[in-house]
Write the structure tokens for this entry.
Amino acid sequence: MRILIVEDDLEAAAVMARGLTESGHACVSAPDGVEGLDQARAGEFDVMIVDRMMPRMDGVTLVETLRREGDQTPVLFLSALGEINDRVDGLKAGGDDYLVKPYAFAELIARVEALARRRETGSVQTLLRVGDLEMDLIGRTVHRQGQEIDLQPREFQLLEFMMRHAGQAVTRTMLLEKVWEYHFDPQTNVIDVHISRLRSKIDKGFDRPMLQTVRGAGYRLDA
């Protein structure tokens, strides 16, 4: 299991990483919320362990940002703040579990592994959300700010792929392979046409455009 530890107490983070590594897990550490956000965006993790009180960006803001971008990696909050309101705030921000410091290391491992199992058993995601854009994979519907958006089947597939990779630059090659199932370049403007149609449907009439062109790279859906 690959775990991201976001903790400004470097000694505590090192002890935690050592114990998790000895239990067979791979760990990446970040010393504050800003670097933690960068690490989360750059890599794929099975679980994140996030301290609440950190410099530059606190843990709640970090998790809220990731959830807005569509990142659903399970999060275990660690904090010395143990009042009910503190725990509720962490869970409302998008946290999946909350452990109060000081804690027993055996409990930390048990909770982390439970989150990973929960993700595996519930890995069929039926609702995607990026900012104010929502996609229901079962009902095959898309809404933005509560307004339903009518998409053709290929447009729906294209948007689903973009939402699953929100905040990332998606190349034309990736779209050809994953959406059109082409493993060669057909030398047509099929992607440009569909991106243009999709952009007109999810951005036109709204205050802020979400579907962006990344020069020399491809496209990005950004909340």
The chain has a mean pLDDT of 89. The chain has two domains: 2-121, 127-221.
